[in-house]
Design brief:
Layout: E1 4-8, H1 32-44, E2 48-51, H2 58-64, E3 69-72, H3 82-92, H4 102-109, H5 111-120, E4 128-131, E5 146-150, E6 164-165, H6 168-182, E7 186-190, E8 196-202, E9 208-217, H7 229-233, H8 235-238, E10 239-242, H9 249-265, E11 271-278, E12 284-290, H10 301-308, H11 313-327
Parallel strand pairs: 1-2, 1-3
Antiparallel strand pairs: 4-7, 5-6, 5-7, 8-9, 8-11, 9-10, 11-12
Helix pairs in contact: 3-4
Length: 332
């Protein structure tokens, strides 16, 4: 089947951060090389590929350009529902697309809401509190150490090496800094002192685990490591990725089960990446899920994981695309 496939995305080069914006303002947006790499994979299957972008002009482009399906990797621009904006538009226009639907994309971007949903399905997750103003910290009933991060962001935006806090004064200072800098709610959760893993999941009716990857920060014990923005930006020098990880089979199976249960609870589609830390009691705790994992052909946890499991980049992109086609009944 040969299709006209649109790609929706947001590029770093289309934005110019002002002086009052944080240094990680562009962190979630893509480079043109990523869009070209996806296009080349889809064209290799004989499809006609149209780069649609993801700005407000997309509405007119969709009216003027007929496509059969959209390969969506757009992160959106503003608000906690921003990842849902383009899928909502595509649904309104009755255009099929890859990936999760607007409800899932909004739920997963709001980390507190995602944790409430998975906890309701008895998936272990650290205790937490959503903080919209500094006064919300009063009467906090959580055990230190705590971890402080933005509630509506991904790609480690706002996560720094000092995001783990040990006392109330430091908690207030860190929380106030995030609230003032990003003008967005903060999630405060109990820190799980154990190794960190990320799990790639693909599929729909019978989702399968692509791989489990342990993230080791060089020079730090697994129990205390923080996968921060500083670390991610220097990943080649500062991170060792172990996929599959050197852990016993029972723990590996439990991590996979928790990740798939979270994926199902949030009704993710086609592909997602689930972040987990394992506590001292060997319990895997759900941290968050990314239903729009990065697809740069060079870096990004899902791509590194796929490569470690023997998948080349083309196979990864084709599999995600084919899962969407199956979901719409276009492939068996």
């Amino acid at each position: 089947m040969k299709l006209r496939v649109g790609i929706t995305y947001n590029l770093k080069k289309d934005f110019y951060p002002s002086e009052n914006q944080p240094i990680d303002f562009l962190e979630e947006f893509d480079a043109e090389e990523t869009i070209d790499a996806i296009r080349e994979v889809l064209e290799s299957e004989g499809h006609e590929v149209i780069k649609l972008g993801g700005d407000t002009g997309l509405i007119d482009r969709l009216k003027q350009t007929s496509v059969d399906i959209v390969f969506n990797i757009a992160e959106g621009l503003v608000g906690r529902n921003r990842e849902a904006h383009i899928p909502s538009l595509l649904e309104f226009l009755n255009i099929p697309y890859t990936g999760s639907d607007p409800l899932t994309l909004s739920l997963t971007l709001d980390k507190a809401m995602a944790k409430r949903i998975v906890a309701g399905q008895n998936v272990p997750t650290p205790r937490f509190k959503k903080v919209g103003r500094i006064e919300d910290l009063n009467g906090l009933d959580l055990c230190y150490p705590l971890f402080v991060k933005l509630c509506y962001e991904g790609s480690s935006k706002g996560v720094r090496l000092d995001s783990k806090v040990l006392d109330f004064q430091t908690l207030k200072e860190k929380t106030r800094g995030l609230l003032e800098t990003y003008r967005s709610p903060v999630l405060v959760e109990e820190f799980v002192s154990g190794p960190e893993f990320t799990v790639g999941i693909i599929g729909n009716e019978a989702p399968f685990v692509l791989g489990v990857m342990q993230i080791e920060i060089k020079g730090n014990s697994p129990e205390e490591s923080v996968y921060s923005l500083e670390i991610k930006r220097e990943w080649e020098e500062r991170v060792s990725y172990h996929c599959p990880p050197s852990i016993d089979r029972d723990l590996l199976k439990t991590i996979e089960e928790v990740a798939v249960r979270a994926y199902r609870a949030l009704e993710c589609r086609d592909v997602s990446r689930v972040d987990i830390r394992v506590g001292g009691d060997r319990t895997p705790y759900f941290l968050e899920v990314n239903p729009l994992p990065g697809l740069s052909p060079v870096y990004g946890d899902l791509v590194i994981m796929a490569r470690s499991m023997g998948w080349n980049y083309s196979r990864l992109v084709r599999t995600i695309f084919h899962q969407a086609l199956k979901r719409y009944g276009w492939m068996e």
